[in-house]
Here is the input.
Amino acid sequence: MTDNELIKLILQGERDKFRIFVERYQQMIFRTCMGFVHNREDADDLTQDVFIQAYQSLPDFKMESAFSTWLYRIAVNASLNKIRKSRKTNFFQLIGSFLGGSNQEASLVSASDPDNPEAILIKEEHSQWLRDALDSLPENQRTAIVLSKYDDLPQREIARIMNITEGAVEALLQRAKKNLREKLSAGKEKKL
Here is the structure.
């Protein structure tokens, strides 16, 4: 069953069919949110919020773009709004996760080599530098890089989601990569 057929059924009263969308797109939306907030609990909450918003706004969906594109737009906007509203909270959460909180990435790192604390610390530090560099990018560059690298979307789809041209996406990705290289190099030099 196509997304548009499913939407028609839901709008005709078969609301329980919306769970098919959740099953179909939940991982995709979670990855997108995780790319922005770097925290499993926040990404889970945002994923739920995205589906609630999509369900409530479904009558407004004009079927001019793919349903997945529309969902991505909702996820990106929800993630950016979350970041804007809780910059201070996110800062303290990142510090907490770096100092031993229950961050998914940190737990994956520590499980990989439990006998080498120095290697664990170095990997955690590098992950933190990358998250900080990503978080410091302008919103449009961060959105393009998250959709490209976390979700592995083609530039055409990113252009639809961001409502810009493919050329603009290419330029954003190039600037984002350049900025990330500069920020990571500057961070490494400060460390030395």
Q: What stands out?
A: The chain has a mean pLDDT of 83.
